[in-house]
Amino acid sequence: MEYNTVREKITLAEYGRHIKRIVDNCIKIEDREHRNRTAHEIIELMGQLNPHLRNVEDFRHKLWDHLFMISEFKLDVDSPYPKTTKSQIIEKPEPLEYPQTKIRHRHYGKNVAALVSKAVEVEDPEKRLAFAQCIGNYMKLTYVNWNKENTNDEIIKNDLNIISKGELSLSVEDNISELSRANRQSNINQNNNNGKRQFNQNRNNNNQNRNNQNRNNNNQNRNNNNNNFRKPYNNKNRNNDIQKGQ
C-alpha cells in the first residue's frame, strides 16, 4: 500500500492526483500539435472538476495559470493567454505602509482629533460650543466601548480640553450626554406620537362607550315594546272569552 505522504507533492490539491498524472504525460508528448490538443482537453476537464470557478472573472485564464502551476512551469504549449512564470507566482507584493499617527488618547480614535481640528477653525462662538458638545457626545460613546462602567462627564470634558490644547472647553452646565438639537427633534416627534396615540385611544374609548350606550338603549326600547304589546290575561278577560264562546 502506498500512502499520500510518500507520494509526489501536488501543487494544487483541489484538482487531484489524476490531473497531475495527465499533465505529466502531456509534458512527455513530443508532437507539439498533439501536446496543444491535450492541453486544451485538460483545461476542459479542469473546468468540469471545479464548476464554481465559472463565476470567477477570467475563468479560462485562471485555468491556464493553474495548468502551468500543476506542471511546475515545465509544460511548453501555446496558451491563448500570457504564460505565467514561476517568478511571478513567488514574487511577494510590496508591503503596505501602515499610517503611523501619534494620538495621545488612542481610545478616542483618529476621528476625534480630526473633528477637534475642524472645530477649532470655527469662529462663531455659538457654533463652536455646539460643535464641542457634539464632539464630547461622540467621545463619550467611544469611551464606553473601552470602559463599560459609568463614565464621568468631567473626564470627557477634561480630555477634550487637552486634545484641543485649551481651544475647546465645556463648562459644568454643558450637557454632553445628549445632542440638544437631535434630542429636541426626537422629543418633539415623541410628543407628537404620544399625542396621536392618546387621541386614537380616546377616540376608541368614546366609540366603545357610544356603542355600549346605543346597545343598552336598543335593549331597553325592545323590552318596552314587548311590554306594551303583551295583553294582561286576568279573570275578567277569562269570563268574557267564556261568554263569547257560548
Task: Give structural notes.
Helix 2 crosses helix 3, helix 5 packs antiparallel against helix 6 and helix 6 packs across helix 7. Helices cover 62% and strands 0% of the residues. It starts with 15 loop residues before the first helix and ends with a helix. The chain has 246 residues and is mainly alpha-helical.
Largest beta-sheet details: none
Beta content: under 5%
What general form does the structure show? flat
- Helical fraction equals 55-70%
DSSP, total strands:
0
- Structural category is mainly alpha
Q: Given the structure, what is the number of helices?
A: 9
Q: Report the mean per-residue pLDDT as an integer.
A: 77
Q: Which helices and strands occur, and which strands form pairs?
A:
Elements: H1 16-28, H2 32-49, H3 59-70, H4 86-90, H5 110-120, H6 125-146, H7 153-163, H8 180-229, H9 235-245
List keywords for this structure.
246 residues, mainly alpha, 9 helices
Briefly, what is this?
With 246 residues, this protein is mostly helical. It has nine helices and no strands. It has helices spanning 16-28, 32-49, 59-70, 86-90, 110-120, 125-146, 153-163, 180-229, 235-245.
